[in-house]
Design a protein that fits this description.
By secondary structure, the protein is α/β, with parallel strands linked by helices. The protein is 31% helix and 25% strand. It is built from 3 helices and 5 strands.
């Protein structure tokens, strides 16, 4: 599924939340999401870096949307060292 070192974008919703819950606690990866619910599910994964995209919170779907959420992924892409 998601391998160590991967950077993955997870959408909001029940399927993305199920994926977040299924990730091994010791996975070393970066997850980018616009869902506060998905981000919260990853709090107990100490080696997962979580980037939450900002924007206006859509209460019916519990995800951020708008221009800020669209612009942010360009700056979240990890760079080589």
């Amino acid at each position: 599924m998601i391998e160590p070192g991967n950077t993955v974008i997870l959408d909001g919703g029940t399927t993305a939340l199920a994926v977040a819950h299924a990730l091994p606690r010791d996975l070393d990866a970066t997850i980018v999401t616009h869902s506060p619910t998905v981000a919260a599910a990853l709090v107990d994964h100490p080696t997962v870096q979580v980037h939450v995209l900002g924007g206006r919170l859509c209460k019916h779907s519990a995800v951020a949307s708008g221009a800020a959420a669209v612009r942010r992924p360009r700056r979240s892409t990890p760079t080589s060292s």
